[in-house]
Amino acid sequence: MEVNELPIWWSVLLIGVSSLVIKLLNKLWFEPRRIRTVLSKQGIRGPRPTFPFGNVPEMQKIQSTMINNTHEEMDGQHLNHKWLPSVFPYIHKWAKEYGPIYMYSTGINQHLYVSDPKLLMEIKQHNSLDLGKPTYLGKPLRPLLGDGLLRTNGKQWAVQRKLLAPEFFLGKVKGMVGVMEESTTAMIKRWDCRILESKSGIVDMEIDDELKTLSADIISRACFGSSYSFGNQIFEKIADMVEVYGKPSLQFGFLNFSWFLPNKKVWNLRKEVDSMLLKLVTDRQVERQSGGATENDLLQMLLDIASTNTDIPARRRETFVLDNCRNIYFASSATTSLTESWTLMLLSLHPEWQDRIRAEIIEVCGVLNKLHHSLHDMDMLRKFKVLTMVIQESMRLYPSGVLIARAILANVKLGDLDVPKGTNIHVCSAALHCDPENWGPDADEFKPERFANGISNACKHPQAYVPFGFGTRVCIGQTFAMTQLKIVLSLILSKFSFSLSPNYRHSPVHKMILMPKHGIRLLVEPVQTS
């Protein structure tokens, strides 16, 4: 009987091995080939991939050639804003070869690059849950984002979006204006002391570090109220996690097996952050049960949603709070502060726009040094038209989210194009924002006046302006971010004048977001008032 059973076991083993081989072949070969065939039959072209790395070797070769053949950095005397060819030379090269829509591969991941305004409009208007976050981005980011809003797809994402988005509407943001003003005023006082201590009355300052600290303080106060100093410690831990993720292999989905292995440093940081968050949660719950004053902050908002909303299962209430605390920190960790930094760099090159902003503050508020009395009036902030134009132009030239990715989770039709399930759509905001066909021959120049009549009249295709993303997954915190930008920039420009430091080296780099490789060094001095 044992002799007859042997072939049965071998048959079971053979079936199991065959099934595994078929799944691997489908994942590594047939599925990528199917996607590319569907797209190519519709006239979509692109560089020819090679197995198993796709176009990654060619991307690396183009990048290496660019670095070897060009001077990577620019000083303040030879600064220009056409940085895309050096940061993403393969995107620039392939767009010239294949047009505004093309396909390419990174390992098993198949990407459809889109810079065509008409197709972009179709993507923006597609409101189903079939467009989500690519899995190659989601899996590595799980230690940081968990199952929070930024990482999830489908119904789980839709539920969280519905619950969290109202907390960032204008009515709620109004309640955070005092926090923004208080933190910025404290920073201004520190700058005043540094200027007084200097012999020349001018300080050479790495402005992006200063504004990153300010942004951390603002979001910590907004999240954790009176416990903001403890929140700053959490912010630092999350910033360390983000630093680990600042690799091109993550953004492009390179075939990098290290992302499938546990990253001890990241998981240890995750444990530290969650331990600190749990302490804040426990302290808040004890305080509430004892009848103490309830904080009106984002932490309390998350706790209230978790405890009262039936869409969140009881077993997920704690993780909902922890995951979305980390998501809020991650989303606001550097993006707003970097926009402030890039804006001040641009203004240091164009002092006439600094003067125009100060003249506007005097016109709206009456007195330059009494600005803080007007900031709690949202109608006053809306009157800062020149400042708004400058911010919009800064986000056009230096968008934080350079690459915006969407996963096609089911076969979809976008305009005349059938896009198969498994495709990853990539949109490069920097390419859209500096397209001369859309913005004119001065697309690479700083000209805030192009926004004088609003975004809809700034260019031929306003849907191609995407500083906060697009579609259903557009940033829910954009009102918070714009309010912070206006308050911070108006306050510091009413007090200080900025010029470019001779030590500034212009070298934008991409580490999940657009960052200055060597920081942004500016000369800061008090505004001369008559």
Descriptive report:
The protein has 530 residues and is an alpha+beta fold. It has one domain: Cytochrome p450 (Orthogonal Bundle), CATH 1.10.630.10. The protein is 55% helix and 11% strand. It has helices spanning 2-40, 56-69, 84-87, 89-98, 117-125, 135-138, 142-145, 154-164, 170-174, 177-197, 207-224, 228-245, 248-252, 264-289, 298-308, 317-332, 335-349, 351-365, 378-382, 385-397, 429-433, 436-439, 478-495, and strands spanning 74-75, 101-106, 109-114, 131-132, 203-206, 403-408, 412-414, 417-419, 423-428, 496-500, 505-506, 508-511, 513-516, 521-526. The N and C termini lie far apart (106 Å).
Strand share of the residues?
5-15%
Average pLDDT number: 88
CATH homology-level superfamily:
Cytochrome P450
Which regions have little confidence, pLDDT < 50, spanning 5+ residues?
251-260
Please identify the top-level CATH class: Mainly Alpha
- Binned, the helix content reads 40-55%
- By DSSP (H or I, 4+ residues per run), the number of helices equals 23
Structural class: alpha+beta
Strand order of the largest sheet: 2-3-9-6-4
Pfam families: p450
Protein name: Putative cytochrome P450
GO cellular component, one term: membrane
Keywords: Heme, Iron, Membrane, Metal-binding, Monooxygenase, Oxidoreductase, Transmembrane, Transmembrane helix
